[in-house]
Structure formats: structure tokens, C-alpha cells
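Many introductory courses stop at the sequence. We go one step further.
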Amino acid sequence: MLVNMMKERMVFPEYVIDIKGIDELKNIEITQRGIEIGSAVTATELQKSGIIREKCPSLAKAASYMGDKILQNSVTIGGNISIGMPSTDGLPALMSMDALLEVKNIERTRIMPSSDLVVGIGKTSLGIDEMITKIIVPYKDGLNGTYAKFLNASEVAIATAAVSYTVSKGKLRVVVGAISAKPYYFDESLLGWKWDGTIDENVRSVVEVIGSSIKPMSDAVASAEYRKEVSKILVSRALRELFGGE
């Protein structure tokens, strides 16, 4: 992403430092804090990791959309989410799992919710001297999820949807991305998901809530109205993929 921005003369860094050789940033492991993912782990490595495929399926699927197969060998999860652009795939998936970010500079380490990262288009809450070193997913047994994305003919994202469900706690999270500067986050209290209702009833209810809550942007890629309709379709498909229904 940085290389593309340099080619488009959007940024002019004096120095570019390659951090991919730092072993600490390449690990995927289960610790007391949860599933810890180094920020230099690539999209290809996320897809191949047994831990990610089994325990963070929404992230594994999101990684499959991070550019073409060649680019996925180099794009990293930290780089993907740090750029702060609406179309990035990693952040909605991480937000749906209530993931935390470990952020460091020379003097300190801090932990922040992934939902606090982006503050505007191309803007993040990271300090100029800070970098993301780890992603921490507070994993509990029974975490399931998926990710859906709709592209236009030029392969630009119209909308994305990440869904995660924690079976042991009955927690449902839906995140809609690519439609505004920041992804939209919904939990079961906002969605009105009724565990004693039918799947079809629940899906229709969730789609209605999301449709009335999101305020997509209009741009050269798509109108706000079109993005809203696509978002509703993606959320419906993702929910039915997880829970069934017609």
C-alpha cells in the first residue's frame, strides 16, 4: 500500500524501513491474552495458519481479499489496517472479534481497541512515532465467523461485512466496512438478535436495523443508496452462511 501511495505521489517519505525480518512481528500464537498476531504477518500466512483458520475464520477469509495472490505474499495485517482507508479488509474482521492492538514507540507500549484505530479517511489515531506491533484477539472457545465483500467492475470495494459469533457467550458482532471513513460496528444489543427466534426472522431484523443505521458515502465508485443495499445483502448472506436459513 505504501509503495502504491508513493507511485501515486501521495506521500514522500525520506526513508522507508523494512520490518518484515523482525521475528517478533511474524508470530501467530495463543497466549493468556488470546490469539496474538504479529503485525508483519502476511495475508498469505494468515490464510495458511491453522490457528487463524480454526479460531479466527473471519480474519482468514478477509485475508483472501487483500489484493491478488501475488500481493498477498507481501501485504501484512499491520500495514493493511494502518493505512486507514475504507476499503481495507483486515479492520472490519478484527473489529468483529473485538480485537485489541498493541502499539509501541521508543518510550511506551499501549493497548487500544481496534475500533479506535481509524479516525478519518487515510487517518488513524497512531502517533507519528508509533507502530502496531501485535493484534490481540481475546479468543474464547467456539468463536465462529465469516467475511463478505462486493467489488465493482474495477475491483474497488463497494461494501464489506464481517460477522463473528462467540458460541459460549452468545455474542454476535457485525461490522460493515468500505461504505464510510470508519467501519460500522453492531453487537447483539443493537441488532435485536433473538436466540429463541427463527434464523430467517433474525436475519430480516438485523438487516432492517443495519439499513436504518448506516449512512454510506457517495463517491465516484458508488452512490450511498447503492452501498446501503449492497451492505444489507452482504450482511444477510454472511449471517445465513453462519446460521443457515433460506
